[in-house]
Specification:
This protein is α/β, with parallel strands linked by helices and about 300 residues long. The chain has 10 helices and 13 strands. The radius of gyration is 19 Å and the shape is globular. About 45% of the residues are buried. The structure holds nicotinamide-adenine-dinucleotide and uridine-5'-diphosphate (2 copies). One uridine-5'-diphosphate binds next to helix 6 and strand 8. The site of nicotinamide-adenine-dinucleotide has 29 residues, from helix 1, helix 4 and strand 5.
Length: about 300
């Protein structure tokens, strides 16, 4: 049995990770300040003796004894990370320093949830880990993108300088149950709009592309990365290479929900990347990992989740 700390454990991805690591028999310590996290996400674990919850902001030091750390704390959707951009950068940077300091003291292995946003609005397609990215350092997405880039720098410097055992994964767009219904990300927005019969809001002309992975595939990849014994530290892309336009996504969700919602077009936000698709050759080779759940099956489960949530 391992003692595992999950920062951001009450969020979308964190709550799935708590569930899976508890199922595997570990002790899970969930740390969250509930900025975007939700108590309902972790409610099912509260009576598990191996689960513990601490309300804490990782920009402040934390002294606990653990064997592994998954560092996920950080708002992930543009409306939330742009709400208090200074706090977003602090969470990524001060948060990384504190969690790396904790890992250094306890000799814990630590995995950083980095992001495809480190590639910015990319000039190469699909994106490989060796690509350095194209990020506007003073734009409205920079608090998130540059914060995550600096966190990667800190991880690699703690590894080089202090021999901290690190792992870095770059997560591409992920969706599934436990996403916040109002968090503004495209899959949750479109499903909620379709189920309520409201207009489906496409930003721009909908020709921008994304590649969406279902949450269960991501969790499998993150755990494989943490546990790999080859000392492969990354960074490694975790995403589903199945790429489509935002307009295609809207049409698919309308069809699958049988909704009467109409599509409306709204202005494209500043610095919105035009295309994004992971190259997952490295994850296949090093982790023997690739996503298994196709869009239709993943959307079906996510639509079921939001249907229940909206009927409560
Ligand atoms: P989320 O917003 O649902 O979860 C983030 C969690 O972190 C929330 O529970 C929030 O309350 C908590 N948090 C935020 N600031 C904190 C702080 N200072 N101290 C303690 N807790 C704090 O988002 P998510 O989609 O679950 O994302 C989790 C991680 O994965 C993030 O680091 C995000 O950058 C990364 N990621 C997610 C995606 C995606 O598609 N969902 C893609 C790339 C990277
Ligand atoms: N830290 C923490 N928990 C620990 C150990 C360290 O939160 O168990 C924080 C501590 O506040 C420090 C940061 O992590 O500011 C970085 O730690 P490190 O040992 O690298 O640096 P130093 O203590 O020398 O500043
Ligand atoms: N988007 C959209 N309508 C929405 C929400 C998002 O058209 O209601 C677009 C957004 O402009 C972006 C894409 O969908 O081009 C993915 O947005 P999301 O915020 O989910 O993720 P990210 O931009 O961080 O990849």
């Amino acid at each position: 049995m391992k003692r595992i700390l999950i920062t951001g454990g009450a969020g979308f991805i964190g709550s799935h990770l708590c569930e899976r690591l508890l199922e595997e028999g570990n002790e899970v310590l969930c740390v969250d300040n509930f900025f975007t996290g939700n108590k309902n996400n972790i409610l099912p674990f509260l009576d598990n003796k191996r689960f513990e919850l601490i309300r804490h902001d990782i920009t402040f030091p934390l002294y606990v004894e653990v064997d592994e750390i998954y560092n996920l704390a950080c708002p992930a959707s543009p409306i939330h990370y742009q709400f208090d951009p200074v706090q977003t950068t602090k969470t990524s940077v001060h948060g990384a320093i504190n969690m790396l300091g904790l890992a250094k003291r306890t000799k814990a292995k630590i995995l950083q949830a980095s992001t495809s946003e480190v590639y910015g609005d990319p000039e190469i397609h699909p994106q490989t880990e060796s690509y350095w990215g194209r990020v506007n350092p003073i734009g409205i997405r920079a608090c998130y993108d540059e914060g995550k880039r600096c966190a990667e720098t800190l991880f690699f410097d703690y590894w080089r300088q202090h021999k901290v055992k690190i792992r870095v994964v770059r997560i591409f767009n992920t969706y599934g149950p436990n996403m916040h219904p109002n968090d503004g990300r495209v899959v949750s927005n479109f499903i909620v709009q379709a189920l309520k019969g409201e207009d489906i809001t496409i930003y721009g002309d909908g020709s921008q592309t994304r590649s969406f992975q279902y949450i269960d595939d991501l969790i499998e990849g993150m755990i494989k990365m943490m546990n790999n014994t080859e000392e492969f530290i990354g960074p490694v892309n975790l995403g589903n290479p199945n790429e489509f336009t935002i307009k295609e996504l809207a049409e698919k969700i309308i069809e699958m929900t049988g909704s009467k919602s109409k599509i409306v077009f709204k202005p494209l936000p500043e610095d919105d990347p035009k295309q994004r698709q992971p190259d997952i050759t490295l994850a296949k080779e090093k982790l023997n990992w690739e996503p298994k759940i196709n869009l239709e099956d993943g959307l079906k489960k996510t639509i079921e989740y939001f249907k229940k949530l909206l009927n409560q």
